[in-house]
Amino acid sequence: MSMSALDPFVFEALMARLGPWPATRNIAVGVSGGADSMCLALLTAGWGQPIALIVDHALRPESADEAALTAARLAKIGVPSRVIRLHNLRHGTALAARARAARYAALTEAALSAGCLDLLLAHHRADQAETLLMRREAHSGPAGLAAMPPIAYTHALRIVRPLLGVPPAPLRATLRAAGLDWVEDPSNRNPAALRARIRAALADPAGTGPDIAAQA
C-alpha cells in the first residue's frame, strides 16, 4: 500500500469478510488515543455505529488528560465514547502483561454493558510482525508462534482485528486527510520493553518494508 489514505470502500470490503455483523452495526472499538485506534474509530464511524472505549491505565500523570482529549476528538467526528479508568495497576514485574489483561477485561465488560457483542481492535500489519518476533524471542511453541487471528472468540464476545493486513502508514495518512490528531504514548518508545526494542530494530515506522512483510 502507498502512503495514501485508506479508501472507505477497502475498509467496507475488509469488514464484509469479517461478518456477520448486527443489522444496526453497533460495535465497540477499543481506542487508546494513538493513531491506529483513532483511525479505526474514524473508519468505523463511516461504516456503522461505533462506541469508543478508552482505557486509562492511570500509569502516567498525564493519562487522564489524554483520555479526555481523545474523547473530545472522537466527539468531533460523531463517535460517542466511554473512558474507563483502571485503579489497580502498579509499575513492576510483567507490567505489560498485567496491563493487557486488565485492559481486555475492562473492554469486555464495557462492550457488553453497551450491548455490543463485537469488540474491534486496531492491530495492524507491523503489530503482527512485532508480535511474531516477540514470541520467537521468547521461544514460544507452535501455538505461541501463530499469528494474531482476525477474529477471536471469548466466552463473552468476538474480538475482531480488521486492520491486520494494513501497514500503519495508510492509517496515519487517513487521519491527516481527515484533520484528526492523535496521542503519542512515550511508553511505546521505552527501550525497557521488548516490543519497543523490536520496533526500533525493524526501523520501519511506515510498516511497508520487507522485514515486516516477511513476518506478517
Overall residue-averaged pLDDT value: 87
Order of helices and strands: HEHEHEHEHEEHHH
Total DSSP helices: 8
Indicate the structural class. alpha/beta
Low-pLDDT windows of residues: none
Strand element count? 6
Please state roughly what percent of the residues sit in beta strands, choosing from under 5%, 5-15%, 15-25%, 25-35%, 35-45% or over 45%.
Answer: 5-15%
Spatial order of the strands forming the largest sheet: 3-2-1-4-6-5
| Global morphology | globular
Q: Approximately how much helix is present in the residues?
A: 40-55%
Give the end-to-end Cα distance, rounded to a whole number of Å: 14 Å
Radius of gyration: 17 Å
Largest sheet: 6 strands, mixed
Write a short abstract of this structure:
By secondary structure, the protein is α/β, with parallel strands linked by helices. Helices cover 44% and strands 12% of the residues.
Which helices and strands, and how do they pair?
Blueprint: H1 8-16, E1 26-30, H2 35-47, E2 49-56, H3 63-76, E3 81-85, H4 95-113, E4 118-120, H5 125-137, E5 151-153, E6 158-160, H6 168-178, H7 194-202, H8 210-215
Parallel strand pairs: 1-2, 1-4, 2-3, 4-6
Antiparallel strand pairs: 5-6
Helix pairs in contact: 2-6, 5-7
Structure description:
With 216 residues, the chain is α/β, with parallel strands linked by helices. The chain is built from eight helices and six strands; from the N terminus they run αβαβαβαβαββααα. The chain has helices at 8-16, 35-47, 63-76, 95-113, 125-137, 168-178, 194-202, 210-215; strands at 26-30, 49-56, 81-85, 118-120, 151-153, 158-160. Helix 2 packs across helix 6 and helix 5 (125-137) packs across helix 7.
